[in-house]
Design goal:
It contains 25 helices and 8 strands. It is mainly α. The chain has a 3-stranded antiparallel sheet with strand order 3-5-4, with helices on both faces. Strands 6-8-7 form a 3-stranded antiparallel sheet. The protein is elongated, with a radius of gyration of 45 Å.
């Protein structure tokens, strides 16, 4: 093509278009030799050389200059010893030209990068001392040479060079996380590389030397093979490469949730929601929005175990789709972000509470080993805590920061211990009860179904509620008694136990929550069962000790405190008056004496019904009521209320108990309707056998 003439040779005999302006943009076609370009292009080329190769020029003319550098490196290295000292200067110039003109397109960029790789290989000194730990830069060949020198001198590969190492592995496919979140990938890779390998991997030095088959861009030169046997080619060493690829896969898998989240919310980088899906190693709890949230939480808690706050304050840090109300996903993400700061929150949707909304919420310090999912006993404990809040609030609102509220919260450890609640969940149960006291719970709206509670939990809960009532207000009022009675009935316990236990609470020390119940005893094998004698000490057949009765020194006379006796008598009178008011409210009105009223309902149950065995799941009064309801297929609400009063039960509570027993026995209710109650015949017959 060139007729044997060096393409980069400047022939002064060739014409030059003096005074012409340099050609703009690219030259037509690829310039392959100086003597083949136009006089105008020669003028532009010579002017560019004279200006120190600093001005704008077509990429083809810059490449023409590189042809000459390429000949000096490839053809003259073996013949001219002066080439060796020139290699560093040539390398620096080629690097400068690539930086200055590298964006002109692949016609220039690709040949120049190949030339630069050749120069970096040829100019690399022999590996007789450790390489300086400068940051990786340059071409892939620069990385290969640096790794080879590290291997030859048994020097650990730093993390930044390890990143350059994996970037030079042409067979390694880039992961999505590397492209979508490169900064986070590099930080996590560096952290785990240092944790696993300390100062770094030490690649073996027994690999084959680096070899480069070089194809010159200069058409006057032929391909050549360059070998550096003193520089082991670490990229071909399988053991270290496998270790790095395994680490890349692990880091990419860890970042996949964050990477996918960024694909959905590319503008969310650096937000609190992003912190929730970042690996823990990358979370900075002291900077940005997360740092501001941390300072806010610390200012609220200030050394306290918990603090009642207004959830509207979270708007400073978190925006929700619906102002003032978070979705379940939004609330879960916020709670997970708070967990990164060592702070927990109630209500927590993960533990059966509703999503966070403007209003009361409780910040608290969780236990170190706290889980993000409830344990087996927490559902029962949470239901009992809800009932406890209803009892405490039955008479009047309770300020969650008052002494009365603290007295109620102080009873939580006893409940947690009696239920066998994990120690890590006890701070959460206290925070849940504090939140319930703040938002308020109506005893009339408590769940009718107590499925999470077995016989043991119902017994513990019933005793605990008595203690809560006394802690909230020692002067028990009728509204508190009514709330306790409704909850006892929902627990399938006799309502008369309320009065007995309230009296015991007022005259004696609080009973153990795990003491045997004074209602129907559980079956054998449960914690509170059994009528067997309790053995205090095994019998000893040997005689000894002292005869009974024994004589003891006379003790001093015991002086009675008249003031204490008077106070106990007054308290007993108050309790008697209270019980009289409660029972007075339940007595049916006396019938008029002048005219004999016509019965609004069926006559009292016959003697055979009164003697019949109780229906499974019901006590005797409710069994009698069910048998009377069987007399007709439907009853008005007034007729049913009169029947319930005649049997000494509360109408609404009795209806719930009848249907609960029916659901357990048959899977369906036995009584349905609102103004008119219909008796379901099939269910009734199955219940009565």
């Amino acid at each position: 093509m060139t007729g044997g003439v060096e393409p980069a040779l400047i022939n002064p005999d060739l014409p030059v278009a003096a005074g012409s302006s340099p050609p703009a943009g690219r030259l037509p076609g690829l310039p392959t030799a100086y003597h083949l370009i136009s006089p105008a292009a020669r003028a532009a080329y010579l002017r560019w050389l004279a200006d120190g190769r600093q001005t704008d020029a077509p990429a083809g003319l810059v490449l023409l200059f590189c042809f000459g550098l390429e000949r000096r490196v490839v053809a003259d290295t073996g013949d001219d010893p002066a080439v060796g000292p020139e290699l560093s200067a040539i390398t620096a110039e080629v690097q400068r030209l690539r930086m200055r003109y590298g964006d002109t397109g692949p016609v220039f960029r690709n040949p120049v990068e190949r030339l630069l790789a050749l120069l970096e290989l040829l100019a690399a000194p022999r590996a007789t001392r450790p390489v300086a730990r400068a940051g990786p830069a340059g071409t892939d060949m620069a990385v290969r040479v640096a790794l080879a020198r590290l291997a030859a001198t048994a020097t650990p590969v730093p993390a930044d060079w390890a990143l350059a190492w994996i970037g030079s592995l042409s067979a390694l496919t880039r992961r999505a996380a590397q492209d979508r979140c490169p900064a986070e990938f590099d930080r996590l890779f560096t952290a785990r590389y240092q944790a696993r390998h300390g100062p770094g991997l030490i690649p073996p030095d027994d690999a084959a030397g680096i070899r480069l088959r070089y194809q010159p861009a200069n058409p006057g030169l032929t391909a050549t093979l360059v070998c550096r046997e003193d520089l082991p080619d670490v990229l071909r060493e399988p053991q270290c490469v496998r270790e790095l690829v395994r680490l890349v896969d692990e880091v990419a898998a860890t970042l996949n949730p964050y990477s996918r989240w960024l694909a959905r919310f590319p503008e969310g980088r650096g937000s609190l929601a992003a912190a929730a899906v970042l690996p823990a190693e990358l979370v900075d709890a002291h900077g940005g929005r997360l740092g501001a949230l941390r300072e806010w939480a610390q200012a609220h808690l200030d050394g306290r175990p918990r603090k009642l706050i207004d959830a509207a304050e979270f708007r400073r840090f978190w925006s929700s789709a619906t102002p003032g109300q978070m979705t379940r996903d939004e609330a879960t993400t916020l709670i997970e972000v708070l967990a990164l700061l060592g702070v927990a929150l109630e209500p927590d949707v993960r533990f059966g509470a509703p999503p966070l909304a403007d209003g009361p919420a409780v910040l608290f310090r969780p236990a170190a080993e706290a889980s993000d999912r409830p344990g087996r006993e927490f559902a029962a404990a949470a239901l009992i805590a809800r009932c406890a809040a209803a009892v405490a609030l039955a008479a009047r609102p309770v300020d969650p920061q008052s002494a009365a509220a603290e007295a109620v919260l102080a009873t939580v450890p006893d409940l947690a211990m009696a239920l066998g609640l994990a120690p890590a969940e006890r701070p959460r149960l206290t925070a849940r009860l504090c939140w319930l006291l703040a938002v308020g719970v109506d005893a009339d709206r408590l769940p009718r179904q107590t499925a999470p509670l077995g016989p043991t939990e119902r017994e513990i809960g019933s005793r605990y509620l008595i203690r809560v009532a006394a802690a909230a207000d020692p002067a028990i009022v009728p509204m508190t008694v009514a709330a306790l009675t409704r909850i006892y009935q929902a627990f399938r316990l006799d309502g008369d136990l309320v009065f007995r236990r309230l009296h015991e609470q007022s005259v004696a020390a609080p009973a153990d929550l795990t003491a045997p119940g004074d209602g129907p005893r559980p079956s054998r094998g449960e914690p509170y069962g059994g009528d067997e004698p309790v053995m205090i000490r095994p019998a000893d057949p040997a005689t000894g000790g002292y005869a009974l009765p024994w004589t003891v020194p006379a003790a001093p006379a015991v002086a009675l405190d008249p003031a204490l006796i008077a106070r106990k008598v007054a308290e007993t009178a108050v309790v008697g008056t209270l019980l009289a008011e409660v029972f007075a409210g339940d007595e049916p009105p006396a019938p008029p004496q002048r005219a004999a009223p016509q019965p609004a309902v069926a006559p009292p149950p016959p003697a055979e019904n009164r003697r019949a065995d109780p229906v499974p799941g019901l006590d005797h009064p409710h069994s009698l009521l069910l048998r009377v309801l069987a007399a007709r297929p439907s009853w008005t609400r007034e007729e049913y209320a009169a029947l319930a009063n005649a049997h000494g039960v509360l109408p609404d509570g009795a209806l719930d108990l009848l249907n609960e027993a029916a659901l357990e026995a048959t899977g369906g209710p036995v009584v349905e309707g609102d103004a008119t109650l219909s008796v379901i015949g099939d269910v009734l017959r199955e219940m009565l056998g």
